[in-house]
Structure formats: structure tokens, C-alpha cells
Amino acid sequence: MIKINKIKSIVLLLLNLLLIISCGPKDKFEWNAGISAPKNYISGGPFVEYFYQGNGVAGTSANVGINPGWGMTSGGYTGGEIFKPVPDSISVSWRCGLDLIEYKVGAKLPREKMLELFKRGKEIKGKKENYNQIITGMAPGGNVTVWLSGSFGNEEITRIKAKRVGETDKDDPNSVTLWTSTGDEAKDILKYTYLHGIPYSVWEKGEKTYQYDIGFSSEENRDFYESVTAFSKDGSYIFLNENQFIIPYKDWLSNHIMDGVKEGKLPVHTVVQWISEDDKQWYKGEIVFPVDFQNTFESFYQKNKNVHIVYVMDKLNPSGNYTFGTIWLQGSTSKERIMKFRLAKLNNETRKYEISKYTFPKGFVVPKWEGRIPLQRPTDLEYWQEE
């Protein structure tokens, strides 16, 4: 009798375990909450909470300003269980770092769309990859975008318009703002926004993407390390196809560039570094693209295949404190010149650049400022401009 009771107990336990497994929530997934803001367009004190059937399931916040790049996540406090239901609504609040306007919104989310993506994942090279994060981005003008994210990239879910709930003065004694900070990051951001303005509509409508890539070439026969950091109008980082990044000069001359394009937004601003293999020669520059570059690109793009934006460096002048290069649009059979640029040389003794790192295109005009707080020309902004 005792053995029978033990067997019954074990069977009952197994049945209960199976019942728990089979009757457990079917729509729970392993995901984290992330927050985002455009590069150079700071969101202050962001707070996001996700809900399902009226109950909070996850959230994230930061007590500082963030600008990791549009669609990229920034560190902050996060909360929630490991396995969570897909949310059906969201609450978002933050303060725009440039306009110092406070925004807040609560909105429904397209849960069925999100649920399907979580279940299906994304096939990458024949293998299923899962979405593991819900990212909420906050941009000037009260613009909110929500993405599902995985190691392979982001899938836009929805855009939301937040309400203006308050504003603060730039000289508010209770907080340090971009306008009162003496830090280098704040100064660089104010320079960037002076040169590019605040493109409110790009976060409302979204930004176009194209199949292309960025390449680098040089007349120099020596080995150099090159890097191009590119930013799009909406404050996204543009990631390059590293396998096609270096283009031998002879291939650039003959338009012999191997296929290596991928989908991406167009740059409006790039930071270029060129460093010799022995680490003794450092060149750096910040390049503002022509305002009409998108029109030029689209015209070339319609007529050419395998399009690259190529930075081609001139031969060095060893005695100079700068060097020049040219940006080209290049396809499989033709190329078109965009602009010339200058890189400043680092003084190895002082560890400083003795001339400005900024390059403006020919005819460049600073865009009209549309922000709430008037912006003056930065006093330390010097530049070289193509004639």
C-alpha cells in the first residue's frame, strides 16, 4: 500500500509539472527594455515603462542625459522578470536637451505585430535569430519610436507623438544643461547642432535608406589605419561593411570595386581618422556634407550599380600640419566628385591639432535655427572651406 501511494504521489507530481508547463503563459519571451536618443540630440532623464493588461511588466530609466545614437541603447536602470509577456501599451517621459521641453505620453502598442515578430524571429544565413529587446527612442519635438531589436539589428514597430507638459529655462540653477555646461561634449554638441539644425520632421516621417557602402583609398604606398564614423540626419550611426572598407588605389582608379553594399541611411557628417602604422602620424577631421548631397546621391544611384561613397587621400606633405582628400561617389563604371576635405595633423609634442579639424563644403550655409532657445555661433568654431 505504501509503495502504491508513493507511485501515485510521483505520478501526481509529474502530472502537476506537466500541467504547469503546458498551461504556463504561451506569450512570454526573454526580452529587456532599452532607451535611445539621437546622437548629438540629448534626451534628459528618460523614463519608459511597458504594460500588459494594465500591469507593469518592464521599465528602464536614466537620471542623466543620453545620446547613444538613434536606435542604439544607453545604459540605465532596468526592471522586470526575465520572461515577460509582450506589452500592449507604453508610458514615456523625458526632457529634450536642446529645447528644454518636457514631454510625456501613454499609448497603445501594436501587440499582435510584436508577438508575431517575437515568435518568428529573423532568419540570418539560414539560422533563426531571436529578438531580445524592446527599445524606445526619444527625439526632439516629442517624437518617439519603438523598435524590436536583436543582434542583427532593429525592426521599427511604431512612432508616437508625445505631449508637451512643461519647460525649463536654460539657466535653471537646479540643473546643468547643454547651454551652461563647460564640458567638451556639450561644446561639441552645440557645434554639431549649429551646423545641422534640429531636423524635427525626420523623426516624424523617418529617413530613407539605400543600398550602398563607404570605402577608403589613398595614394600613399605605406600602411595606415583608417576609420570613418558617419552620422545620418536623424542621429543614427552608419555602420560600414568592414570587408569592403579599404579600396586599393588602383581599383579606385579603374572603378574595380568588389560588391559589398548594404542598406543604410546617408551621412550628413563624418569624422575621419588616418593613422600611420608606426603610430607617429595622426590626422583627423570632421566633414560637413553638402546640403544637397541626398539629391546628388539619388541621381547617381539611379544610374549606377554597386555604389560607394569613397574617401580618397592625397599624397602626404611631410612638412605640413594638414593633408587633403576628396570624397567621391563611385559605381562599377563611373565616379562623381562630391567635395574636397582637409584633415588636421596631430603635433606629437603638444598632442594637439594646431589647425581646425572642421571642413565645410563649397557654398555651405548654416541652416535656420528652429529650436526654442536661440543658438549663437560657437565662439571656438574654426574651419577650412572648399573654394
Features:
twelve-stranded mixed sheet; 387 residues; 27 strands; 6 helices; 17% helix; alpha+beta; seven-stranded antiparallel sheet; globular
Whole-angstrom Rg: 26 Å
Strand segment tally: 27
Q: Roughly how many Å apart are the termini? A: 100 Å
The helix content, as a percent range, equals 10-25%
Organism: Chryseobacterium rhizosphaerae
Protein name: DUF2931 family protein
Pfam family, one: DUF2931
List the helices and strands and how they pair.
Elements: H1 2-23, E1 28-30, E2 32-36, E3 43-52, E4 55-61, E5 65-66, E6 77-80, E7 83-85, E8 89-96, E9 101-108, H2 111-120, E10 122-124, E11 127-129, E12 133-139, E13 143-150, E14 153-161, E15 163-167, H3 184-196, H4 200-205, E16 210-218, E17 224-232, E18 237-238, H5 249-253, E19 262-264, E20 267-276, E21 282-288, H6 293-303, E22 308-313, E23 322-330, E24 335-347, E25 352-353, E26 358-360, E27 384-385
Parallel strand pairs: 2-12, 16-22, 21-26, 26-27
Antiparallel strand pairs: 1-7, 3-4, 3-5, 3-8, 4-6, 8-9, 9-15, 10-11, 12-13, 13-14, 16-19, 17-18, 17-20, 20-21, 21-24, 22-23, 23-24, 24-25
Pfam families: DUF2931
InterPro entries: DUF2931
Protein name: DUF2931 family protein
3D architecture notes:
This is DUF2931 family protein. InterPro entries: DUF2931. Pfam families: DUF2931. With 387 residues, this protein is an alpha+beta fold. It folds into two domains: 28-179; 185-385, no CATH class. It has helices at residues 2-23, 111-120, 184-196, 200-205, 249-253, 293-303; strands at residues 28-30, 32-36, 43-52, 55-61, 65-66, 77-80, 83-85, 89-96, 101-108, 122-124, 127-129, 133-139, 143-150, 153-161, 163-167, 210-218, 224-232, 237-238, 262-264, 267-276, 282-288, 308-313, 322-330, 335-347, 352-353, 358-360, 384-385. Strands 16, 17, 18, 19, 20, 21, 22, 23, 24, 25, 26 and 27 form a twelve-stranded mixed sheet that branches. The radius of gyration is 26 Å and the shape is globular.
